Amino acid sequence: MPGFELLYQAAALCLTYPGDEFRARLPLLREAAPQLREFADHAAVTEPRELAAHYLQVFESADGHSLYLSRWREFSPARFQELYSSHGLELTGEELPDFLPAVLEFTARTGNTVLLTEHRAGLERLRSGLADSGTPYASVVDAVYATLPPAENRATPAGN
After folding, report:
1. 25 C-beta neighbours (distance < 10 Å), count
2. 3-state secondary structure of 99
3. Among 10, 2, 3, 6, which Cα is nearest to 101's?
4. Cα(72)–Cα(19) distance, integer angstroms
5. Contacts of 11 (CB under 8 A, 6+ apart)
6. What CA–CA distance (Å, rounded) separates 64 from 70?
7. pLDDT tens, residue by residue, 115-155
8. 58 to each of 44, 55, 67, 86, how far by Cα in Å?
9. Are 95 and 101 in contact (CB under 8 A)?
10. Is the whole model's pTM more than 0.90, yes or no?
11. pLDDT for 68-84, tens place per residue?
12. Which of UniProt's keywords are assigned here (predicted)?
């Protein structure tokens, strides 16, 4: 995980609603996380209202792609909160603990990738759906997914 803290923090910013703070941080984001330059460049040249409308269409419409990891795998949001608390972190704000940007911030602060790896299949489905829809957000999830260690082979040996 070493070296991915900045990427996770930057990806969390990219995957939240693109308000004024997001736009102000674009130059820093572009330099701090080269893996996200494609998205940062797109966001920099897109009119703020258009970018915000696209975010809502992609992530919050009825046929949108969920940033809530429990949607992709049956897991109680309480599991997320328990892990945050065990590291001395508490969520503030309105988002639920399984919100991908919150998970990315947790991972950036603690170095603990367990929530990302436990939800690898959901991240893959999210990544694939975003790529199929042609949204620039696909490159953000792709960059995060690329940092995950290979999936463990869960096959059981013959005779067991």
Report:
1. 15
2. strand
3. 10
4. 26
5. 33, 36, 101, 104, 140, 141, 143, 144
6. 15
7. 899 889 889 999 999 999 999 999 999 999 999 987 765 44
8. 18, 5, 10, 33
9. yes
10. no
11. 887 776 666 677 777 77
12. Nitrate assimilation
Please tell me the distance from the alpha carbon of residue 72 to that of residue 125, in angstroms, as a whole number. 8
Helices (H) and strands (E) in the chain, counts: 10, 0
Biggest distance spanned by C-alpha atoms of the chain: 61
Please provide the DSSP assignment of 1-46 as one string. -TT-HHHHHHHHHHTS---HHHHHHHHHHHHH-GGGHHHHHHHHHS
- Return the closest-CA partner of residue 58 out of 138, 152, 139: 138
Pair of tokens at residue 125 = 């489905």
Residues 6 or more apart whose CB falls under 8 angstroms from that of 156 comprise none
* Residue 72: both structure tokens together: 């992709």
| 116, two tokens | 């990302």
Q: SS3 of 68, please?
A: strand
Question: Using CA atoms, how far apart are residues 76 and 91, in angstroms rounded to an integer?
Answer: 16
